[in-house]
Structures are given as structure tokens and as C-alpha cells.
Amino acid sequence: MENEKVSILIVEDDMIIAANLSIQLTSLGYEVAGILPRGEEAIMHVREHSPQLLLMDINLKGALSGIDTAKAIKKYIDIPIIYLTANSDDATFDKAKETHPKAFITKPFNKLSLQRTIALVVEEMKEGNNSNQNTQHIEILEDRIFVRHNGRMEKLLLEDILYIEADRNYCILITPKIKHILTCTLKVMEEKLPKSSFIRVHRSFIINISKLDVLGDGHLEIGRKVIPIGKSHKELLLNRIQTI
């Protein structure tokens, strides 16, 4: 994980501080994903774009504090958070700890402390990726999947997935326009995908049941792809089709 590939979202309602942060982060080689003053906007941004790191002011103006915002975000996706705070009291610190932040930066901060703190967090993120290098980071929300690709999280709507095919320790995710090769097992995908839309029909295939074109005795077809139906999966598939 190189610095230039790390996307950082700034959530800060003081625009002078936010602009200063943006300039310094850019000069250090990081990508600034955006500057947002409100927690509600940050939640929407993360769900849509999934940056890799958050710089979050604890005392945001508006309905949500930085801590409230972090709690809401972590319900959907686990993103490392560094808090910015002018408060060093124990009560604020203890409340913030509940969201498991990676670090705190106390205002007013200087470039050196910012640089060192973020560098340490990025290194920890890198070590975490290396320790789990055989399993690709995948996040699935209500209607979309985020897949880590070239250091970024790419969005794909679940309704666009036709089927998923296993290839040893990889999964090939097929859409009408493109295929994605994921470094995870089919079992991991089966556990993550919503069972209302996806069903395993063979030891090597999961299908989007809404994309089913043809159902034969021992096979089915989706987009002209012939997919075998495993004997142990056939009854469940037939039951699901009857309930559609």
C-alpha cells in the first residue's frame, strides 16, 4: 500500500483547518477523497465511494458528532479512523475509544505530527493487508458490493451480477459487461451475499436467481452460460424457484 494509493476523507467543519489538512496531505503524497463538514454527508460519501482512511473531527456541528458519525459508518464498513480533537478530557476519550480509532491528533497540530501519525496508521493497514493477503477485502451493503482493486474500493451493484464461479481459491464474478477475479473462496462469497437473491447450485457456482434463463434437469442457463446443478443443491433450488 503506497502513500499515493491511500485515499483519505477529511470530515471537519472548520474550513480553514480542513483546507490546511488537504494541502498537507497532498504534499505528503496522499489522495484527498473529499472535504465534508457534516457527519450525515460523510456517511453518504463513505457508502458511495469507500475511502481507505478517515480524518474525523470529534466535535462536528450538526445533529451528529464525529463519534456518532464513526459509529454509523462502522455499521456498514470498517474504515480506519483518526480523530481530530481539541478536547483531551477523559470522558471524550473514553467515548471515542468505543469506535476503535487508530489514533488521535490533538489540535492545533503540526505537519510533522500529522505525517508521523498517518504514516504509522498506513503501515498498520499495510501489515493487516499482508497478513490477510490470501483473502481479498470485500464489503457488501444492501444493494452493492465493494471490492478492493489496485488499492481502491470499487463499487458493483448486486443486481448486475449474473453468477459467480469458483476457481480453486479464487472467485470469478460475472456481469454482462465485465468479470472480476476475487481472491476469496466461494464459501466466503456465499456467506456474504444476500440469500434472498443468490443461491449456490453447485460446489463451483453461485447464481443470481433473478437472472435464471433456462432450467433443465441437471443444468441451468444464465446469459448462454450452461451451469451444472449439483444433486445436493437441486431440491433447494427448486424450492426457491417456486417461491419467486
From TrEMBL:
<dbReference type="GO" id="GO:0000160">
    <property type="term" value="P:phosphorelay signal transduction system"/>
</dbReference>
<dbReference type="GO" id="GO:0003677">
    <property type="term" value="F:DNA binding"/>
</dbReference>
<feature type="domain" description="HTH LytTR-type">
    <location>
        <begin position="145"/>
        <end position="212"/>
    </location>
</feature>
<dbReference type="Pfam" id="PF00072">
    <property type="entry name" value="Response_reg"/>
</dbReference>
<feature type="domain" description="Response regulatory">
    <location>
        <begin position="7"/>
        <end position="122"/>
    </location>
</feature>
<dbReference type="InterPro" id="IPR007492">
    <property type="entry name" value="LytTR_DNA-bd_dom"/>
</dbReference>
<dbReference type="InterPro" id="IPR001789">
    <property type="entry name" value="Sig_transdc_resp-reg_receiver"/>
</dbReference>
<feature type="modified residue" description="4-aspartylphosphate">
    <location>
        <position position="57"/>
    </location>
</feature>
<dbReference type="InterPro" id="IPR050595">
    <property type="entry name" value="Bact_response_regulator"/>
</dbReference>
<keyword id="KW-0597">Phosphoprotein</keyword>
<dbReference type="InterPro" id="IPR011006">
    <property type="entry name" value="CheY-like_superfamily"/>
</dbReference>
<protein>
    <submittedName>
        <fullName>Two component transcriptional regulator, LytTR family</fullName>
    </submittedName>
</protein>
<dbReference type="Pfam" id="PF04397">
    <property type="entry name" value="LytTR"/>
</dbReference>
